[in-house]
Automatic annotation (TrEMBL):
GO terms for molecular function: flavin adenine dinucleotide binding; oxidoreductase activity, acting on the CH-CH group of donors. Residues 9-120 form the Acyl-CoA dehydrogenase/oxidase N-terminal domain. The keyword Flavoprotein applies. SUPFAM superfamilies: Acyl-CoA dehydrogenase C-terminal domain-like, Acyl-CoA dehydrogenase NM domain-like. This is Acyl-CoA dehydrogenase.
Amino acid sequence: MDFSTVTLSDEDRAFRDELRAFLREIVTDEVIRRDRQSGENFDEGVHLALGKAGYLAADFKPEGEGGFSPIRKRIWDLEIGRAHTPWFHWGTTAMVARAVQQFGSTELQDEVLPRVLSGEYRLCLGYTEPEGGSDVATCKTRAVRDGDGWIINGSKMFTSNAQNAAYVFLITNTDPAAPKHQSLTMFLVLLDRPDVEIQPLRTVDGDRTNITYYSDVRVEDRYRIGEVNGGWTVLREALNDEHGTVERGDDGLQKIATMSEHVTLLAEAVDKVAALAPDEESVRFRLGRAIARMEAAMSTPDMFGRVANAQVMREVSPDLMDILGTASSLPVDEKGAAAAGAAEYIFRLAGPTGIYGGTLEVFRNMIAQHALGLGRPRT
Ligand SMILES: Cc1cc2nc3c(=O)[nH]c(=O)nc-3n(C[C@H](O)[C@H](O)[C@H](O)COP(=O)(O)OP(=O)(O)OC[C@H]3O[C@@H](n4cnc5c(N)ncnc54)[C@H](O)[C@@H]3O)c2cc1C
């Protein structure tokens, strides 16, 4: 690992400045305000503009095929976060697109991937079910053979951004009698159809997500991703991506911990609170401790970092609200909100951050079991 400071070449500096100016133009105050109100973490105009300018393709492709160099990828990740770009839907889209690339037929790749890179198609995740999401392999949504296609029935919880996506990447059960990891088959299911219902759901931090219902949905076999009953192999790759357990290069340029973009928001809140807080020793101590914790969390790799980031948000945000007093409990854009409501927003965001993509308890179990070798937890 190389810890030296990175010196940007003139070309890379020009790339950064151009990207910054582009983001300033498309991620307007109005876009940010609308995103906060809708809770969608997505803006179609911004997404299409990034696709048209070739940024989505450059982020998706390897460097040898026209993708960003490691240094530009780092600049890209940082600038997207700094601009407060509504962004989460690209994460799920890229994750599913990689599964299509790896396990889908050539015909399906040709149909889906160019439109993903142009921004036109977005893809969402249909994993979690009403009866429980932590154990994703326990899937009750059924897919049954019907001639050369399949009939799907079931429902999924928290299908985030289904309202903005062309397809959902759906886990189905194709063999209820088989052991659960050998019973799954993955499909890409078109969402804009009468037999799929999308019901909106709001979380405590104001995020918009959905419950989705599938009633006798007919899907052609070419929309199957991977082998019949081989869905776990497909899913494992996508889950590694989401959990942040993918291999990293040793150039030190990749994002160290998944979801560290939330800690960037927390860092902005700490700055705002520091500018307003009374100059007292206890306040200096608490802000200093907050900054040390954030630095440590952002430097923690893999699934350890996933836990550390959510945990630091949960620990620091109440401290910030405590420092500023009751006015800090008013939300963003509310008259009289301390530090423009920044700490209150992080406080509400910290809960779901420790849930989506896997809860902190489940991650801690995974760390204990797989990283520390402590064996399976007793239930
Ligand atoms: C804002 C938001 C967006 C989301 N977006 C998506 C999405 O786009 N697509 C999607 O498919 N899902 C999505 N999810 C769902 C998310 O992945 C699940 O909520 C999560 O995996 C937990 O599943 P659950 O809610 O069913 O809780 P459960 O699995 O029912 O867990 C309930 C409680 O039990 C604990 N628990 C469960 N199992 C264990 C265990 N083995 N050991 C210790 N404790 C355990 C959990 O930590 C939790 O506290 C989203 C969730 C949120 C909040």
